[in-house]
Amino acid sequence: MPVNRSLRTTLTTGTAALTLAFGVLALAEPAHSAELPGNTTGSDKEAGGADDTSIYAAAKIQYSGAVTKSGGTGNVTSSDVNWTPPPCWYAPYLGAKDFKKKMSGQIESAKNTPGMGGTAGAAIGEMQRHYEDEYGWTDTPGYKDYNVDKDGEGMFWAAVENPDEPDVLKRSSCNDLPFWVDNGDTPPAQYEEAIKPEILAALAYQRMQLPDTKVTLAPEATTKVNLPTWAWLDKAVFDEVQATAAINVPGFGIQATTTAKPVSLKLEPGTTDAETFPASGQCAINADNSIGQPYAKGDADKTPPCGIRYLHSSGDSVFKLRATITWKISWTGTGGAGGDLPDGTFGTTQDVTVQEIQAVNR
């Protein structure tokens, strides 16, 4: 009986003994974040590897530019709640000889596991035939002796989990068996999650670290009730940032650069007893890439193009002024690819003390 393209899907209705075989069958499983070395700006982040129970893609994704030093998610939030980074993908893993050594050893180990019979045992046997005896199925040809006669001419690709994806079902959804790709070729069309510039761009977006947004205020930190408080961001500290993700292995190399360009600033006073300028609180970017206008002597009676008027004092506390920048996100990649990703936002808060204006009676 031919097997389905995904052995994991086929075998989910198998017996309890099947779980013992998952060390071989569930090739995406081991990519846990705890096993990954943290990346720093300009360094590599391991996208996979191998352990005693299973194998998974070991190509490194190299991150550079405005990315987190910890290797985890950055501080930018997508404005599209329905957009998420890829939970998993397929990437180059091993050459033919190395793959044979790793995979055949695990198959033999699984076959010799006590109690490994029934559906699980049959699946392991079919997988062995797939890599050794050219046993294939629709759109998925089998291999003769693990393709060792083509060693150096391509690589087996395997699944990689995104360690920053919280949903384990999504993270493990790339559940196809490792497949061969010749050097210089693109993966077969049925592997939609095969690593490509678009995926790298999304991963760079996920790890992007935007600069803090501390708005300059006048008066600074402490203001008065009903006194216009001017707010602005200087163009010198308010510019576009870029993050790049790349993969380079023998016969395969791609990259993508994700760019975030600031487009607007939103002010939230931290209290409902306040007015914003403009009324929406959304301050547009100026032609010189600054936002708002610096306060100048003589402007006390003017309305600021970007600012706040507090209508009540903060008493013995402070108001938490939140400044959120919206960033337009775009990307470019290998082969002239490129496009737009959902806008991103990132905001910070700063304390503002509002005092009553004191009158003196004579």
Task: Walk me through the structure.
The structure is a single chain. α3 packs antiparallel against α4 (118-132). The strands form 3 sheets. Strands 1, 2, 3, 8, 10, 11, 13, 16 and 17 form a 9-stranded mixed beta sheet that branches. Strands 7, 9, 12, 14 and 15 form a 5-stranded antiparallel beta sheet that branches. The chain has helices at 7-11, 22-25, 96-111, 118-132, 168-171, 197-206; strands at residues 44-46, 60-65, 77-78, 88-94, 154-161, 179-182, 216-218, 222-224, 228-233, 241-249, 252-268, 274-277, 282-284, 291-292, 307-310, 319-333, 338-355. By secondary structure, the chain is an alpha+beta fold.
Record keyword descriptors for this entry:
single chain; 362 residues; alpha+beta; nine-stranded mixed β-sheet; five-stranded antiparallel β-sheet; 6 helices
